[in-house]
Amino acid sequence: MKPELEQGSNSTPPVKKRTFVEWFKNRWSNDPLFSILIALIIMVILQTLTLGFDYDSFGEWFQAWSNNWLNILRNNAGIGIVALGMTFVIMTGGIDLAVGSTLVITGAFSMYLLDTGAQGILGAVGITGVPAIILTVILVMAFGYLLGSLIGVTVTKGMVPPFIATLGAMMIFRSVTQHFAQGYNTTVPTEFLQISSFKIGNYMIMPIIYWIIIAAILYYVSKRTTFGRQIIAVGSNEKAAKLSGVNVDKVKLRVYALMGLLVSIAAIIQVSRIGSMDFSNAGRGMEMDAIAAAVVGGTNMLGGRGFILGTVYGMLIIAVMNNLLNLFGVPPFLREAFKGIIVIVAVLLQRKEKNA
Amino acid sequence: MKIEMNNIRKSFGSNDVIKDVSFSVEGGEITALLGENGAGKSTLMNILGGVLQADTGSIVIDGKEVHFKTPAESLEAGIAFIHQELNLINDLPIYENMFLGREIKTKYGSLDLKKMYDQTAEMFERMNVDLDPNKMVGDLDASYKQIVEICRAMMTNASIIIMDEPTTSLTDSEIERVFKMMKTMQEHNVGIIFISHKLNEVMQICNRYLVLRDGNLVSRGNVSDVTTKDLASYMVGYDVRTESLRRHKETDEIGEEVLRVEGLTNDHHFRDISFSIKAGEIVGVTGLLGDGRSELFQAIFGANKYISGKVFFNGKEVKVKSTWQAIKEGIAYLPRNRKENGIVKDMDIFENASIVTWPMFSKHGVINTEKHRQKFDEQRNALRLKMGAMTDNITSLSGGNQQKVVLSKWLAANPRLLILDNPTQGVDVGAKEDIYDIIIKLAEENIAVVVLSSEAQEIIRVCDRSLVMYHGAIQGEVKDEEMNEHTIMNLATGGEKDVERSEHQI
């Protein structure tokens, strides 16, 4: 048996001072997120070196460095939020392939509500300006929640395997969107764009702030709430969870509904950043990126184990790597291969001593 | 064939699991390997089976030293290990299972099904097994699966077969079938190492015994020279009580009715069940495996459906549709098969102990950890739970302590009715007695306790009275002097209460 690991008591000084190597080894084998964090730090250092550290003109260098970082974070905020929901879904032992299509259908819905042209529903009933924006955000999020709930009901009451239920939803949502939004040419009111492009100081960081807030909330949910802990119980041993009074169906349903809600937030961010959405291409492959981030972050595909913080790290690792490949000038078609390698290596690293 | 294991030592990290153990087994003998959970039985057998390697010591077969690096090498040397979780593929027929990993191929490289079938049939004939090799393994009951495993071991010309708790999930008649099979093997001069917790079975089938305690071989000898009580005390290192714990309660001493069931029926598992249980009573429900008692009480707990009949809880009729509703009503159900139904292995000890009460001890969905901690600290002492840190994984505990954690999650919910389904399954002797003490203490605290068990001895020692089920119906109720193995067995096999009440013999 291993020596006990003190948890959450950093304040008590250890009797014997441990060397850094011992501390590192201990962490490496006991803290599942540690290796992920190390990997992330290494990649950030690599990226920083690649950008060329210039001591003489530190100010300019820092400007370029932070701009690059804000860009990375902004570009990945939407998918980062989706990956957080995906973590919960995977932790219950499920999967959601429909996120990309949910993104498109909720995005289209927001444009349908808001269009400044003749087609905008809210405009037609006389709601404009800020009330229209607020109403749109609420309605789109409700719509996302509803679509997620529909998937959840199919999975729980219909007992359709999540892979199949969400595969079907993936096809349906995109197809329906493409049909009804065919040649749909909208302009979104400029106030709506403020959701993403509002500047704090000189920085356009709203999407990043949303990401951080949602990650913080979900972190708390996963650690401290009944819902969060029941997710682990359901994913790890559904039978035992049910026999312990956990409402397994309700937990699963809420997880898919939450997923839909988070995707709709990502859709609002995307539409408000770009002002439009390409219904046939937006969100394609999003499910795979979200799953990859979760898996790199230590989430067990079989359910049970998963870490919100890990998924944030995982998302950042993938994002930094994309950035690095960009800086190195790796041809676009090859980049996916690197992503694939990262996912596999990450899982290999996590396969340390696992006692059955 | 004779196998000697000499001066075997094995440690995992700083934990010495096997400390200098030497013994030998011979063909034609059935040797019981006994010990509490964590005594080192599995480690020792895994070394013999080639799954693990010893740190020091040697294995000698017929005077020749051998070194097993893989299970395949051990098998090659004639040692077959039948694990508790059987290695059979349910969706393949018996004869293909018999050749898993060693398939016979035709000269074109395809499977030679005919030859495999014939050899299987031949083996069954030799071992007096009445089975159709064409049958799907998934259609077999647990004992026949065990028998298929044994025949497969025989197929590899094994001369020593290690059987790890083969009877745990078998009914009495199935156990008889497996024992008959073991006797046949003995006649074929095969040696068997029989790992079991059931001392009565050891007395019945084994010639010799080995007892491990904390990695040491503490006793060995001929089974005919000892009693089950001796064996139990060797295992735990002190005298184990075997006396009856049954209380003698007068009718006016017990409390109000807690549960009444009228005509409860479910299509497949039980029919027309009526009984009632009062507060402070300990009621046993026994019978053979498959008698429907688990399904019946799962239905009362809301985990299973019933189609007709009524359930009254505390005098008012309830329709329990879900487990969380049952918990709110004050019903608790400790399930059988702890590994599958009881523990959540991705969670630590503390979380496993608080899973039931999360919704109760929470505000706006945020769990009150402090309250759980207080409850758990109380329980921990009351249950004599042996554990490291609360944040250790549940799987770091022995079976008995795991069971206590599962029990503690129910006690935290303050149930009025506690249903215990096979509470001492896979639990060692010491923890078993602890659990009996807890059951009696809870009843004294006016909780209605139901103990489901197929071990008649357990029922007789602990319960005030017992219902005996047969094929989904209550065959009879026993109490006082009627509560003996003989009467219970009679009822459990569909017979009537015996008029002459003859004393049961061991």
TrEMBL record, chain A:
Subcellular location: Cell membrane
Transmembrane segments: 33-53, 73-90, 97-114, 120-147, 159-180, 200-221, 253-271, 306-325
Domain of life assignment: Bacteria
MF term (GO), any: transmembrane transporter activity
Topology within the bilayer: Multi-pass membrane protein
InterPro entries membership: ABC_transp_permease (IPR001851)
Coiled-coil residues: none
GO cellular component: plasma membrane
Pfam family membership, one: BPD_transp_2
Keyword Transmembrane helix: yes
UniProt keyword list: Cell membrane, Membrane, Transmembrane, Transmembrane helix
PANTHER family: ABC TRANSPORTER PERMEASE PROTEIN YPHD-RELATED-RELATED, RIBOSE IMPORT PERMEASE PROTEIN RBSC
Protein name: Ribose transport system permease protein
Species of origin: Ornithinibacillus halophilus
Automatic annotation (TrEMBL), chain B:
Pfam families in the cross-refs: ABC_tran
Gene Ontology MF annotations: ATP binding; ATP hydrolysis activity
SMART domains per record: AAA
Subcellular location: Cell membrane
Topology term for the membrane: Peripheral membrane protein
Top-level taxon: Bacteria
SUPFAM superfamilies to which the protein is assigned, alphabetical: P-loop containing nucleoside triphosphate hydrolases
Main location as per UniProt: membrane
Domain ABC transporter: 3-239, 240-496
Keyword set includes Membrane: yes
Transmembrane segments: none
Record keywords: ATP-binding, Cell membrane, Membrane, Nucleotide-binding, Repeat, Translocase, Transport
Chain coiled-coil ranges: none
One of the record's GO cellular component terms: plasma membrane
Stated name of the protein: Ribose transport system ATP-binding protein
Naturally occurring in which organism (per UniProt): Ornithinibacillus halophilus
Top-level taxonomy: Bacteria, Bacillati, Bacillota, Bacilli, Bacillales
